[in-house]
């Protein structure tokens, strides 16, 4: 593998990391009914993560409640948000029957949406979630979707009917064998027409068949940028890389964005102005 050209300017540029987790089992014990309990290098407290952000010049982060370890227990993330002096906001994991009052309480604590992990739980797990999607839409919150393969092709009508803002994890985790015209990825590109959907340029290791810099994902990143534009694309690290099948590091992932988006103005939107507009960082 030839060395990547390093652009040091990205470290001083203002940035938001739009998908990351805090896992602190010593401070917040894991739920008893979770299928996976992260340990060792997969964990990371909010205090440590703030040092990571400072080291790379990242001003804000959108925390995502992990199904691993915590399930629908959002206390670790809410504590991190409360102590972050405005640097963190979050996406919560909530039960399908979560009432409007609970969602309002979460919103008041810095939660901007709820996560639906179809790639983990499957489609049937969320078969009763249409009212929840509607409540999120009424409250102006995001429906964050993690899918893989062709799953999104059957979900698009439900998402569009709900009226909520849509946030797609990890480039939609497409099936590389089917290419950019595969059913699931085509459904993702079509969501751009709604002007309510945003996609995270992240998680390449989750669907690439290659090692860093994941060259087999370039066509998908290019298609997403063309369809959504930098006004509806954001960047994320996925720190601390739960269940990673290979070594990942924060700095090289940031440099990968420079390679994928060479235009500095577009990068500024993806890293800064778009997430500030979407998630309200810095708002009183």
TrEMBL record:
Hydrolase found in the keyword field: yes
Classification via InterPro entries: Amidohydro-rel, Aro_Compnd_Degr_Hydrolases, Metal_Hydrolase
Gene3D superfamilies noted in UniProt: Metal-dependent hydrolases
Domain Amidohydrolase-related: 16-281
One Gene Ontology term of the molecular function aspect: hydrolase activity
Pfam families: Amidohydro_2
Keywords, sorted A to Z: Hydrolase
Superkingdom of the source species: Bacteria
PANTHER family for this protein: BARREL METAL-DEPENDENT HYDROLASE, PUTATIVE (AFU_ORTHOLOGUE AFUA_1G16240)-RELATED
Record protein name field: 2-pyrone-4,6-dicarboxylate hydrolase
Lineage: Bacteria, Pseudomonadati, Pseudomonadota, Betaproteobacteria, Burkholderiales
């Amino acid at each position: 593998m030839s060395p990547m050209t390093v652009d040091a300017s990205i470290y001083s540029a203002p940035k938001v990391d739009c998908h990351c987790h805090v896992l602190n089992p010593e401070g917040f014990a894991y739920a008893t009914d979770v299928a996976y309990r992260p340990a060792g290098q997969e964990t990371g407290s909010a205090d440590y993560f703030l040092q990571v952000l400072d080291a790379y010049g990242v001003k804000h982060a959108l925390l995502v409640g992990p199904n691993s370890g915590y399930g629908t227990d959002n206390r670790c993330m809410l504590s991190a948000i409360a102590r972050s002096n405005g640097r963190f906001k979050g996406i919560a994991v909530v039960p399908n029957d979560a009432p409007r009052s609970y969602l309002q309480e979460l919103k008041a604590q810095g939660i901007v949406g709820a996560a639906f992990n179809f790639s983990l739980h499957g489609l049937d797990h969320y078969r009763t979630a249409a009212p929840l999607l509607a409540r999120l839409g009424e409250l102006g919150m995001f429906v964050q979707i993690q899918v893989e393969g062709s799953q999104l092709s059957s979900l698009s009508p439900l998402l569009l009917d709900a009226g909520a803002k849509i946030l797609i994890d990890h480039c939609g985790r497409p099936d590389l064998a089917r290419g950019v015209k595969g059913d699931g990825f085509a459904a993702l590109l079509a969501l751009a027409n709604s002007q309510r959907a945003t996609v995270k340029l992240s998680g390449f290791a989750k669907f690439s068949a290659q090692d860093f810099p994941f060259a087999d994902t370039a066509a998908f990143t290019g298609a997403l940028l063309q369809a959504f534009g930098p006004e509806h694309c954001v960047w994320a690290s996925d720190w601390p890389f739960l269940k990673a099948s290979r070594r990942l590091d924060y700095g090289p992932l940031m440099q990968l964005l420079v390679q994928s988006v060479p235009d500095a103005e577009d990068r500024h939107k993806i890293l800064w102005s778009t997430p500030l507009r979407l998630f309200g960082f810095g708002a009183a």
